[in-house]
């Protein structure tokens, strides 16, 4: 089944070229079906890239999904046009009286800041608090995962000696949990972050389950016991070129940055990086949509 997105959304053409089943809102209204309503709070600066990455994964399940994009009202991104934001995004004021089957809160390149120093932190706290009451399950990515762990469970992030940047191996603790059903015992995932969260704090929290750690024993997939909050500390949504683009951007800025680990063939930046995490990206998103959204959300919200 398709994802339902505005017909004019720029990502639509790319998705169709990739043979992702896309349906515009007008056609979707003619079908007698209860689609899932998913809200995406996109905190990334290059919003159109993130839209495409997420829609590519949300559109590869048997479920029909309505997508809505949310932006912060207290901070306006400088890397996307005002026209794009006004036409395809809404603010919390417009959705706070609605309920959603699922929600995604993306990462943001602000992890070196204290949470309280983020310009939209108070707004984000209000959104996360609302989501716990009005969303069946919320998927948090990278900085969004760290923000959730801090706000909901009091777990602080900490700076690492250097950026975790590249493709790393991970293992799962319990393959019978539905979120990781079908995962290989060892799988790969991209990371791009300067901060981490303490594994011991997660493991001793009675409200959390640590489902996956990296080869360096860093927490990767964390889920609340009630499945309301799912935290992914890396970027399984990334496509094959995302880390290359970040690396080139940092080099152009004159930053000291290592070449992404385990990414370029033979560590040659002129080689095309292979996507060796794609299948697990699709598994994670389809498992989340099926087991924690579709199977749990009410057919009719009260």
UniProtKB/TrEMBL annotation:
The lineage of its organism: Bacteria, Bacillati, Bacillota, Bacilli, Bacillales. Its EC number is 2.3.1.31. It is found in: Cytoplasm. The record marks 111 as: Important for acyl-CoA specificity. It is an enzyme of class 2 (transferase). Transfers an acetyl group from acetyl-CoA to L-homoserine, forming acetyl-L-homoserine. CDD domains: GATase1_HTS (cd03131). One of its GO terms (biological process) is L-methionine biosynthetic process from homoserine via O-succinyl-L-homoserine and cystathionine. The active site is at 142 (acyl-thioester intermediate), 235 (proton acceptor), 237. The record marks 192 as: Important for substrate specificity. GO terms for cellular component: cytoplasm. It comes from Virgibacillus salinus. It catalyses: L-homoserine + acetyl-CoA = O-acetyl-L-homoserine + CoA. The keyword Cytoplasm applies. Substrate binds at residues 163, 192, 249. GO terms for molecular function: homoserine O-acetyltransferase activity; homoserine O-succinyltransferase activity. NCBIfam families: metA. Belongs to the MetA family. This is Homoserine O-acetyltransferase. Pathway: Amino-acid biosynthesis; L-methionine biosynthesis via de novo pathway; O-acetyl-L-homoserine from L-homoserine: step 1/1.
């Amino acid at each position: 089944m398709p994802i339902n997105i505005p017909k004019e959304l720029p990502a639509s053409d790319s998705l169709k070229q990739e043979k992702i089943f896309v349906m515009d809102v007008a056609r979707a209204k003619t079908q007698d079906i209860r689609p899932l309503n998913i809200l995406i709070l996109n905190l990334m600066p290059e919003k159109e890239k993130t839209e495409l990455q997420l829609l590519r994964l949300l559109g590869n399940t048997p479920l029909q999904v309505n997508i809505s994009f949310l932006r912060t009202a207290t901070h306006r991104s400088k890397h996307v046009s005002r026209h794009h934001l006004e036409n395809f995004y809404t603010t919390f004021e417009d959705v706070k009286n609605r309920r959603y089957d699922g929600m995604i809160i993306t990462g943001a390149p602000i992890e070196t800041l204290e949470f309280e120093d983020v310009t939209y932190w108070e707004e984000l706290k209000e959104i996360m608090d609302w989501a716990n009451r009005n969303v069946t399950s919320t998927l948090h990515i990278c900085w969004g995962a760290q923000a959730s762990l801090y706000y909901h469970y009091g777990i602080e992030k900490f700076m690492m000696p250097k950026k975790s940047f590249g493709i790393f191996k991970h293992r799962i603790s319990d393959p019978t949990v539905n979120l990781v059903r079908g995962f290989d015992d060892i799988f790969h995932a991209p990371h791009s972050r300067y901060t981490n969260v303490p594994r011991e704090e997660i493991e001793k929290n009675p409200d959390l389950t640590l489902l996956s750690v990296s080869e360096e024993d860093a927490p990767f997939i964390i889920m609340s016991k009630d499945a309301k909050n799912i935290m992914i500390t890396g970027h399984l949504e990334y496509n094959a070129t995302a880390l290359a683009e970040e690396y080139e951007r940092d080099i152009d800025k004159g930053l000291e940055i290592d070449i992404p680990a385990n990414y370029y063939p033979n560590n040659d930046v002129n080689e095309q990086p292979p996507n060796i995490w794609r299948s697990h990206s699709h598994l994670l998103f389809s498992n989340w949509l099926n087991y924690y959204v579709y199977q749990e959300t009410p057919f009719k919200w009260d």
